[in-house]
Amino acid sequence: EQLDLDDGRWEDIHVVTGALKLFLRELPEPLVPFSHFDKFIAAIKIQDLSLWGRCIRDLVLSLPPAHHDTMKVLFHHLCRVVEHKEENRMSVQSVAIVFGPTLLRPASEEGNMAMHMVFQNQVVEHILNHYEYIFPE
């Protein structure tokens, strides 16, 4: 569908953000494919910080090209949002809470959803905090 972004409906940033989240949530498969969900959750639980960081980076690099490239563009934008946290009140933690469950979710909602949410948010937070390392130019 063609949208006119100059239309007054799009002036409220919450509408735009909500539309983006809805689009991502309604994808047949999330940005982080179902096949990678358990791998990312296991990686975020690693205690050795240097191994933890490499494992997350390697998992991102192992994503299918369309997922990887979309993630790179989206996270670049989200990093820019975080840069303006003083004005928009969107810290790394806030962005992770908003986008974690949308970008990274299990194939079925069985299991401990509360614990999944904590780990989903941590994965997004880690990628935001280490964007340059995970997506080198």
UniProtKB/TrEMBL annotation:
Any one of the GO BP annotations: signal transduction
Pfam family, one: RhoGAP
Domain Rho-GAP: 1-135
Domain of life of the organism encoding this protein: Eukaryota
Alphabetic keyword roster: GTPase activation
GO function terms (MF aspect): GTPase activator activity
Gene Ontology CC entries for this record: cytoplasm
Matches recorded under PROSITE patterns: RHOGAP (PS50238)
Alphabetical list of PANTHER family matching this protein: RHO GTPASE-ACTIVATING PROTEIN 27, RHO/RAC/CDC GTPASE-ACTIVATING PROTEIN
Official protein name in the record: RHG27 protein
Source organism of the structure: Leptocoma aspasia
Gene label: Arhgap27_0
